[in-house]
Amino acid sequence: MCGIVGYVGPSDCSGILLDGLKRLEYRGYDSAGMAVLQDGGIEVRRASGKLSMLDALLREQPLSGNVGIGHTRWATHGRPSEENAHPHRAGNVVVVHNGIIENYMELRSILMKAGREFTSETDTEVLSHLVDEAMKGGEGVLDATRDALKRVRGSYSIAVFSLDEPDRIIIAKNSSPLIVALGEGQNMVASDIPAMLGFSSEIITLDDGDVGVVTASECRIFALEDGRPIDKQPIHINLTPAMAEKGGYKHFMLKEINEQPRAMIDTMRGRISMERGAVLFETEGPDGDFLAGIQRVHLAACGTSWHAALVARNYLTRLARVPVEVHLAGEFDARSALTGPHDLFVTISQSGETLDTLRTHREAREAGMATLAVCNSVASSLAM
Ligand code: GLU
In CATH, what number does 252-375 get? Predict the structure, then answer.
């Protein structure tokens, strides 16, 4: 789940959005973009790769306007690329989204049958079409967003902007964080506190099931389900950027230890089908059963990832009841190992760039094993 930033107020916002996104960089991302209300239209700039690419694009094709939304994407559905970067636009609506829309395939085919054209491979794009469709049916942007979200299953924090109501940003949250920072005659939205430090220390935090309307002068929160107003008192935060990045923990290590349940949920969300009782992978297609018939698992990694593999061996043996072997990637030769078509070869690397791990992954593939990579960088060599 990556970064969302939005601004509405009297200032020119593209610099504010870019700065906010930069302060969320520590979360990792593979592409970035922003949409700004400019000269009565919506202008979108998106770039694959680091924020410096978006920055360079904005220097060539600057944006100027008082309302805008920005995003750093960490791809879950669709390659990291310019077309898949957010914001996604349909008609007069633009959307940025953190999270996963689990039923996007089903919604996408319904929308396509209704004549809607998709320009990305993401799950997110259905949201922009759903909101636009509801608005074309006569609804305002708040109700259209509520209706769209009622059709969606999954996790999200979103910011929506429509040309038809250009003084506001609509926000919503379910299982992914979103906050509003209240300024003087201007407001910001963001997925995490560091993005708004220095802007304001008065914060409203959304809860799951909340939808909000943010204008320059106010922030109103409603219940997604029935639209009833929810009274939210702002809280005052007193954090330095460094403290905020550490999420209130004393050290990054403590933060990461405490984030493990969240990281597990984020990794597996959208990859587990409760209906089918199956784990799904992107490579296997809707009916594939990539893991069926696997009789032995190899885990290969270096350093800390190798230690993680030792822990994983205990869980896999206990829960999946399959024999598991752990290899140091630098010392393993998949070509001469006694392996067969019923072996699954799993490589683990935080960066996705560990050379020995990459080599052993390639060799396992060449040896005909089913391979799976676990890494923390979606655009890395291992992930690609
Ligand atoms: N699922 C969305 C995508 O792949 C959002 C990913 C994110 O949280 O950055 O575009």
Answer: 3.40.50.10490
